[in-house]
Amino acid sequence: MATTAQLFEEPFDADEYIERLAWRTPGGGSKGGAEAFDPKRLLEEFENHIEELKQLDEKIQRRVEKLEHQCHREAKEFAHKVQDLQRSNQVAFQHFQELDEHISYVATKVCHLGDQLEGVNTPRQRAVEAQRLMTYFNEFLDGDLRSDVFNNPDKIKEAADIIQKLHLIAQELPFDRFADVKAKIASKYHDLERQLIQEFTAAQRRGEIGRMREVAAVLLHFKGYAYCVDVYIKQCQEGAYLKNDVFEDTAVLCQRVNKQVGEVFSSPETVMAKLIQNIFENKLQAHVKEKLDETRHSDVEQYLKNLYDLYSRSTALATKLTEFNLGSDKHTFLSKLIKSIFSSYLESYIDMEKDYLRTRGAMILQRYYDSKNHQKRLIGTGSIQELKERIRQRTNLPLGPIIDTHGETFLSPELVVNLLQETRHAFERCNRLSDPSDLPKNAFLIFLLLVDHLCVEHIDYALEIGLSAIPSSDAKNANLYFLDVVQQANSIFHLFDKQFNDQLMPLISSSPKLAECLQKKKEVIEQMEVKLDTGIDRTINCMVGQMKHILTTEQKKTDFRPEDENNVMIQYTTACSKVCAYVTRQVEHVRKSMDGKNVDTVLTELGVRFHRLIHEHLQQYSYSSMGGMLAICDVAEYRRSAKEFRVPLVLQLFDTLHALCNLLVVAPDNLKQVCSGEQLTNLDRNLLHAFVQLRVDYRSSRLGRHFS
């Protein structure tokens, strides 16, 4: 049986179990082991083992039944015990309810008895207190203070309580009958009050917080309590302002006193508020007045810097002080204190800011022009100037003498940075020092001054000078500096626009002044764009005039009708070479001077006029066969220059012109085929005919008949 039990090892597997049983049986293995396989012996072993398993099963079943019976018996016993415990718990709960009712009854009786005792004791205590006060009152009435409480310095707290009550009683007595005793009580009242304040002051000097708290609690009911607080505030500030930084000293002082005030006084928020008010109305106000009054009339720039710094530090200090308990509306309280100090200065702030910016801007401008040894010209205003401007826009003619600026643009990045820097500081001061309701209006006034100094007095003036310096279109070897003016004006205006967005917009974004600022900016831009467009247009005319001058002086009629048709050694004419070199320089100049879409716009206009000039120039000559080939080479070189424009329209125009020049060399019989080509088919027949007529063999070869 033990052997059988060993075969039931966990985890149990029936197949494994049979294998192990067969293996343990002699002659029962699959290979027979040392002996041959014996099925009968194996069958016998299986039958014996089955009998053993049956016996084992019966034994286990009997044991299970025994354990089940024992479990049922113990379950019944446990159920009986639970029922007994429930009955015991119910009895205990009933006893607890009875006890609770009894305790409630006794407590009610005790409370009632306490109320009765209090009702009897309170009048008795009042009577005893009244008798005690009458005894002390009699001593004042007799003029002899015999009680120890009035003569013992250690009992000053008790004496103060008595005299305070007697003082209240004396105020209710008729003056004519009790004038003498009332005077004695008042005298003793003031004497004790003085002694208490002296004791409080001495305790404060010694740093005895506990004694200060006791005396302050006694003085709370005296009229001199406010004076006690004043003395405390005065002593707190002794030795607190040893540094040069009154704001930092104030923050440190309030941080130190705040904890002490809470330990000494019953209403610390009132005392703390009174301390801060005293500091603002005395220390800070005196400091601000000293700093501002010494520079208000002598140095406006320093005055504005000091005002901004002092006001900023005052508001920062007020922010720190909001950490302390100063009452229910501490923000309003601190704002009023700051306003009381700075109100007289803030009322006149914007006027002084405007005067300073106006003077400072004029000085910066004059200093720049003096450094250039330049006397500013008066730019006309009013109807005459408007008429001139209108004529100049429509005719593109210079009005007035041409000025030689020697390449000077009269635009200074350093000057612009100085003006913008001053304006940035002004916007910062305006944001800090202006009343919220006046902020947009004040910011707009500062913006107008910036427009006047930067845009009108500097940029617009430079544009006027630049326009006056542009030579006429037929001038020879003219130096064109207006594009440099354009480049610098654009750079300056980008800086102006950045300050407009970064510093002005946040100050006016939610006010009606926003529309006014945007309109003013739009007007300034439009005025400058008109002058820039006029100047660029006249500059392009000058460029074209220079090209025309080169072509007129360098191009010879024999270039396209060479005497020896078989001995032409050049790839393109000298005039073409010089024009292309000039065009390349001007294209590069335009790219350096412009940005964004303006580059393409200006180069497109220059390219169109360049094409028109070459087109008209080629029509002034007649061409032999070899001359036509040379003209084609010239146009190819012009087209190579046109590629530098990087403008499809310009390149297309020169492609067409190149195709037109092919008419100068094509065989007569092929004219119609060439004219119907992709690039020429949409052109006017008269234009094609005009180019064909430039051929020297036009009449002799009867090209007109082939062309028609």
TrEMBL record:
Organism: Pagothenia borchgrevinki (Bald rockcod)
Location of the Exocyst complex component Sec10 N-terminal domain: 39-148
Protein name: Exocyst complex component 5
Domain of life: Eukaryota
Family according to the record: Belongs to the SEC10 family.
Alphabetical list of PANTHER family matching this protein: EXOCYST COMPLEX COMPONENT 5, SEC10
Residues forming coiled coils: 43-70
Residue ranges of every copy of the Exocyst complex component Sec10-like alpha-helical bundle domain listed in the record: 158-706
Keywords: Coiled coil, Exocytosis, Transport
Pfam families: Sec10_HB, Sec10_N
InterPro entries xrefs: Sec10-like (IPR009976), Sec10_HB (IPR048627), Sec10_N (IPR048625)
Record GO biological process: exocytosis
